[in-house]
Amino acid sequence: xxxxxxxxxxxxxxxxxxxxxxxxxxxxxxxxxxxxxxxxxxxxxxxxxxxxxxxxxxxxxxxxxxxxxxxxxxxxxxxxxxxxxxxxxxxxxxxxxxxxxxxxxxxxxxxxxxxxxxxxxxxxxx
Length: 126
Fold this sequence. Notes:
126 residues; mainly alpha; 5 helices
């Protein structure tokens, strides 16, 4: 039986995006509820969760379904734009979380392991 390596890669990308979304939501939850005085969730964390949702709902389905079912929409430049946009979003997202880890005391707030894991997943998602 033949397995398409790109389909396996897209499945792995979707799984990593789901893990990234869960880690970003965990950071937001810790910052919003588990502190003595809850602080607003930083925009970088919100953007990181957005990038994960964007990858799950737009980028992965577009790159999997369009070449197979809608070949007229699977122009090589459109695929390049989809991949480039996703790559730039992931780069900005994990950089924002890493910068927030450097500037703020996320480890003291209890979100250190989730923030570290989200940066690692963001690097692999890139």
